[in-house]
Amino acid sequence: MSTSPQLIKIVARFVRADSGAPLTGPGYRVRFYDFDLIRDDRLGESGLSPDGVAEVICSAADYQGGILARLFDRLKEKKPDLFVEVVESDRAVFRSPIQWNVDPLKVDEVTGRINPTVDLGTYQFREGEGITDEPWGLGVHKPLM
User: Which of 31, 61, 65, 132 has the greatest CB tally within 10 Å of its CB?
Assistant: First the structure.
């Protein structure tokens, strides 16, 4: 059995809600997070491609943190709750809804193999969306502290 950490690729696409054009520009960065009740795990940060795509590669250990998880393997989080945040000049300008219990090691129904790539889909970017909404009920994250 391999002791090396499982690497996972997370991908998200962004288009402007008003025009459908890809969100691009050197001033925008995308941060990927795992939502947790005490402190969210930051999984990585990426720029945007000319097609409005952001992606990071992280280790499963990045979202399996916590003192109890280090002591007891069965307490490690297996299905992270993922969300993204678009920042401009280090200021959050968009926050996505949380995608709950994402299985990054799901077996592909066609190939029968694990493809550790999580595609969060395409987000319609509206500046300010999701920044002040509460996570419960709407599924949108609270402002980060």
Answer: 31
